[in-house]
Design brief:
Layout (H helix, E strand, L loop, with lengths): L1 H65 L2 H24 L5 H26 L4 H6 L1 H47 L4 H35 L7 H16 L3 E8 L4 E9 L8 E3 L4 H8 L3 E4 H7 L4 H7 L4 E9 L2 E10 L8 H85 L4 H28 L9 H16 L3 E4 L9 H20 L6 E8 L2 E8 L15 H13 L4 E6 L5 E8 L13
Parallel strand pairs: 7-8
Antiparallel strand pairs: 1-2, 1-6, 2-3, 4-5, 5-6, 8-9, 9-11, 10-11
Helix pairs in contact: 1-2, 1-3, 1-5, 1-6, 1-11, 2-3, 3-5, 5-6, 6-7, 7-11, 9-10, 11-12, 11-14, 13-14, 14-15
Length: 614
């Protein structure tokens, strides 16, 4: 009975040893198939779509900004590739779980929203200038696509992690089962160990794929880098990730000086940034001339007497090296060097091939970043020149306004001190000649009347040329004086609504605003046949706002021969105001009449003085 029980126990154990691994292996196989046939390809397709979209954006933006037809050809090639990837992604999505399939659907919809304009540019249906005009909108759509890709990538990573966790759980169960059954059969334990090694290899492959995807994502975001230095740092990081190296560095070549310079580094065991060495005889020269990567080690570099041998030996004793040339549009830029500790395996052919592919993608992105930097520098220089010219024009306008006001004041002094005194003298002489009677007295009276009329005209011209009120800083006071002067001279009542104490210390600005309002009121009198007018002054939102309303027929009404045409007066006012960032807008009022609105930055009312009043 005990023997039968023992035999039964042995048979059951043997059966469990046979069936248990089969069940575990089948379960793990299903999980691995799902990981390698659905989730893994989906993650790879998402990464490929992200890289292709980045390349399409770089080529389309470069073609739109530079007109280089080579970039248009690259755009068509990249678009064909990403289109195939998108179709593969759409075919794989139904086989994934609901959450991952939904993320993939969002990616495909975001791509369709973005790619239509790119397709039109690639087909030639959209000009590069038209594409350049929609670059901001395309950038927003591309950012939406990147966001959708990032979320889909996260979902794929989560799905991968979940399946790997389930595989790990199955492995633990299998290990415990194998440990228990190993007391009866050493073969089951050996099979379990072999399975564990295979799963370990698969896990290492998945980890390597993850590193490569992360590196390629960094390259895809090169266009978002703030300058060439940051872009080069990202390239070095990506190279170290792809090759699994301990360090990586980017060397640039200065062909004029025949030197190489370390521009960016990542990790450890590398030469510091900024180090320079002779280009002749260097590893960079060798790979550039061969146009092919080179795999070597520090010991070999020392024996060959390379310029950087001592530095490399100091940074990483006996390290392995992979050196890849960097070319952009056929022109050499430098070399990408990846170091690996001597206890690590040598660089494989597939690893070197991936590094070369990474280098080719990187140079395209770096060139675009350099183009953007050059454009930004040009724009900054242009803006600085425009600001300088504007300041000069404003400076000259200020001098012109003061000079004009000085000339007016000088002419007013001549009229008052010279011409008026002469006319007074003429009237005195005429009065002394009166009293002889007859035609002579009539002639004297007529001449005296003409002299009095001339005196009245010179007084009015003196006031018009140099109003005494402009000697003070009060703008509200000056406008009220102007309103009274216009009503007294032309019979046009003018209501002034201005805050008390409104001052303008700068004489050039004060004279300009006074003259603009005077021209608007005279236009209302001479051309619009207005019967009343209103001047309103207010400060708000950093500007001084002066509104002149009248009830006339408008500034486009008939002009008399003696008056300045209204269009010339308005053009003069607009030109002078524009030099101080001000403006003049003229249009109809809601009722019959005309409204002129003067806006002037408050900063120019109290700015630091540039000229003294003459």
């Amino acid at each position: 009975m005990r023997s039968l029980t023992l035999l039964g126990f042995v048979l059951v154990s043997l059966a469990a040893l046979v069936v248990g691994p089969v069940v575990v292996a089948e379960r793990n196989g299903a999980l691995r198939r799902e990981l390698t046939e659905v989730v893994g390809p989906l993650a790879s397709a998402i990464s490929a779509l992200e890289r292709g979209a980045a390349a399409e954006v770089a080529a389309a933006r470069g073609y739109a900004l530079t007109g280089d037809t080579l970039l248009l050809g690259r755009l068509r090639a990249w678009h064909a590739g990403t289109d195939a990837v998108a179709r593969r992604l759409g075919g794989l999505a139904p086989r994934a779980d609901a959450a991952l399939a939904e993320r993939v659907g969002v990616v495909l919809r975001a791509r369709r929203a973005w790619v239509g304009t790119v397709e039109a540019l690639a087909r030639g249906d959209l000009s590069r200038t038209a594409y350049a005009a929609v670059l901001p909108e395309q950038q927003r759509r591309y950012e939406a696509l990147l966001y959708a890709l990032a979320r889909a990538d996260a979902a794929a990573a989560a799905a991968t992690a979940a399946r790997r966790a389930r595989i790990a759980r199955a492995e633990r169960i299998g290990a415990w089962t194998t440990a228990l059954l190993a007391l009866l059969a050493f073969g089951a334990a050996a099979a379990t160990l072999r399975l564990g090694r295979r799963l370990g290899t698969a896990t290492a492959d998945v980890a390597r794929w993850s590193r490569e995807d992360e590196a390629l994502r960094q390259i895809a975001t090169l266009l978002a880098a703030h300058g060439t230095a940051e872009a080069l740092d990202r390239v070095a990081d990506a190279a170290r990730e792809v090759a699994g190296g301990t360090g990586a560095l980017v060397e640039g070549v200065d062909f004029d000086r025949q030197e190489i310079e370390v521009l960016a580094t990542s990790g450890t065991s590398v030469i510091p940034v900024g180090v320079r060495a002779p280009y002749p005889g260097s590893l960079a020269e060798e790979v550039i001339k061969k146009r092919h990567p080179e795999v070597t080690d520090v010991d070999t570099v020392e024996r060959e007497g390379r310029p950087t041998a001592a530095l490399l030996s100091e940074a990483c004793v006996r390290c392995r090296l992979a050196v890849v040339p960097l070319f952009s549009e056929g022109e050499p830029m430098g070399a990408l060097v990846v170091t690996r500790a001597p206890d690590h395996p040598p660089f494989g052919e597939d690893e070197v091939h991936r590094l070369q592919l990474l280098a080719d993608l990187s140079t395209l992105g770096i060139r675009q970043v350099q183009h953007v930097e050059a454009l930004r520098r040009s724009e900054a220089a242009l803006e600085a020149r425009v600001r300088e010219r504007t300041a000069q024009a404003r400076h000259l306008a200020s001098a012109l306004a003061l000079a004009e006001q000085g000339e007016r004041r000088a002419l007013a002094h001549v009229l008052h001190d010279d011409l008026q005194q002469m006319l007074y003298g003429v009237r005195v002489v005429l009065r002394r000649a009166r009293g002889k009677g007859g035609a002579q007295d009539a002639a004297v009276d007529a001449a005296d009347a003409l002299a009095e009329e001339a005196l009245t005209l010179t007084r009015r011209l003196t006031v018009d040329l140099s109003p005494p009120v402009l000697k003070g800083e009060g703008l509200a006071e000056a406008l009220r004086w102007l309103a009274g002067h216009v009503e007294e001279r032309f019979g046009l009542p003018v209501l002034v609504d201005a805050p008390e104490g409104l001052t303008v210390p700068q004489p050039d600005v004060r004279a300009l605003l006074f003259q603009v309002v005077r021209e608007l009121l005279w236009t209302a009198v001479k051309h619009a046949q207005a019967t009343r007018a209103r001047v309103a002054v207010a400060e708000a939102d950093g500007v001084l706002r002066i509104v002149v309303d009248d009830d006339g027929v408008g500034a486009a009404g008939p002009a008399t021969e003696a008056a300045t045409p209204p269009g010339e007066a308005l053009a003069w006012a607009r030109e002078r105001l524009a030099l101080f960032d001000g403006q003049l807008d003229v249009g109809p009022t809601p009722e019959r009449g005309t409204r002129a609105v003067v806006t002037f930055p408050l900063a120019h009312l109290h700015r630091a003085g540039t000229f003294a009043a003459p």
